[in-house]
Amino acid sequence: MQASDIATISHVIEQVQEAAFALKFAAGQSQEGIEAEYTSSLFDIMELYVDSDQAITSFRNAFRRVANDAFNATAEIGWTDSGNEPPVSEELQTWVNGEIETEIGNIDSLFADLRELRKTGTDDEQNAFIANKAEGYAGALIGIYNYAKMSAKPEQDGEWEFGDTDHCDTCADLNGQVHPLNWFVDNGYIPQQRGSEALDCGGWNCQCVIRDPKTKEQLIP
Ligand SMILES: [Zn+2]
Fold first, then answer.
1. pLDDT at 36 over 90
2. Order of strands, sheet of 157-161, starting from the edge strand that comes earlier in the sequence
3. 171 CA distance to ligand 1 centroid (A)?
4. Long-range contacts: 163-167, Cβ < 8 Å, 24+?
5. For the chain, how many structural domains are there in total?
6. Prediction pTM value
7. pLDDT of residue 126
8. Which among 102, 134, 164, 208 has the fewest CB atoms less than 10 Å away?
């Protein structure tokens, strides 16, 4: 290996680390703020990978670290937006850890796809794929936020209200129902949770919200 190769490698690794650490979760940051930063960090990491000729490892590790941070920060924001002090409850932390593990479990196959794309894809194809994946991965955060926010106020009554999208049977059936928030959580009914197993629609296009049944104030998200 030549000195110039080593310089290139360490430069790329530096950039990956920067992209990962660009994600700084200052106190008081909003759910949307984190989602936007997470999206661009994931985009940068994947793009740096396909633009390089380096092995997957450091990129995959950066991706994992960012996912871990974004999930934890989002859960904490949900928890505090419901009026609680950090840290989140042990129960919630256990659930978040499980979600992180599942998400990280998907990363290997993502990078296998990226490796193929790096060999054969045009710049446009690579960009479109990466943008789509970054958005898809970041879409998980709203479910984390809603779950955390609901778990933080279990006794609070909420009324499900469906959004402007076409409604699956589950969401249509939930529309107008009033229950304590922990009833929704216990049944897996988390509004807008992408990949939901409890909602027929899988939550992919869900715009449902939960309101206070009396004041109609939006509680979730
Ligand atoms: Zn819905």
1. yes
2. 178-180, 157-161, 209-211, 218-220
3. 5
4. 163/206, 163/207, 163/208, 163/209, 164/207, 165/205, 165/206, 165/207, 166/205, 167/201
5. 2
6. 0.90
7. 96
8. 164
Domain boundary among 147, 163, 182: 147
SS3 161: strand
Q: How far is the CA of 193 from the centre of ligand 1 (A)?
A: 9
Q: Are residues 33 and 105 in the same domain?
A: yes
CA 89 to ligand 1 center in whole angstroms: 27
CB 66 within 8 A of CB 38: yes
Mean pLDDT of 19-37: 75
Taking the centre of ligand 1 as the mean of its atom positions, its distance from the CA of residue 88, in whole angstroms, is 26
Distance 84 CA to ligand 1 centre (A): 27
CA of 55 to the centre of ligand 1 (A): 40
Q: Which domain holds residue 211?
A: 155-220
Ligand 1: distance of its center to the CA of 13 in Å?
41
142 C-alpha vs ligand 1 centroid, how far in Å?
Answer: 13
59 CA to centre of ligand 1 in angstroms: 34
Say whether both 174 and 87 belong to one domain.
Answer: no
Same-domain pairing of 117 and 193: no
Looking at the structure, do residues 13 and 106 belong to the same domain, yes or no? yes
Q: Do residues 171 and 138 both lie within one domain? A: no
